[in-house]
Amino acid sequence: MNEILMEVTGMTCGSCVRHVSDALKAVDGVEDVAVDLASGRVAVRGRPGTATARLTSALADAGYPARTVDGSASSPAAPARRSSGGCCS
């Protein structure tokens, strides 16, 4: 199983955590998502070959800019598609 660590901006509450988790779990190949609201970090576990671009795109579509970190395949933060950011802004 492959693990990708991401830094996600715009998460402010438990509802945001659920939105981020749901967006990532909908990506083909994702098997598990662990969100740490306090740090803004998300660990995504999935089949080898799960595309980080698809993960960042899914989060951007949900209104949460993200980038991979810590040795994961580097990807710049995607712009938020919601004008106000996460679910609570």
Report on this structure.
The chain has a four-stranded antiparallel β-sheet. The chain has helices at residues 14-25, 52-62, and strands spanning 2-8, 30-36, 41-46, 66-69. It is α+β, with helices and mostly antiparallel strands. α1 crosses α2. Helix content is 26%, strand content 27%. The longest helix is centred in the N-terminal third of the chain and has 12 residues, at 14-25.
Summarize the structure.
The protein has 89 residues and is of the alpha+beta class. The chain has helices spanning 14-25, 52-62, and strands at 2-8, 30-36, 41-46, 66-69.
Provide keyphrases for this structure.
26% helix; four-stranded antiparallel beta sheet; 89 residues; alpha+beta
Set out the fold topology:
Blueprint: E1 2-8, H1 14-25, E2 30-36, E3 41-46, H2 52-62, E4 66-69
Antiparallel strand pairs: 1-3, 1-4, 2-3
> How do the strands of the widest beta sheet line up side by side?
2-3-1-4
The low-pLDDT segments are 73-84
- Helix-strand string: EHEEHE
- Rg value: 12 Å
How many separate helices? 2
The helix content is 25-40%
Multimerization state: single chain
The beta-strand count equals 4
Strand residue content: 25-35%
What is the structural class? Answer: alpha+beta
Q: How would you sum up the global shape? A: globular
Give a quick account of the main beta sheet: strands, pairing sense, barrel closure.
Answer: 4 strands, antiparallel
How many angstroms separate the termini?
A: 35 Å
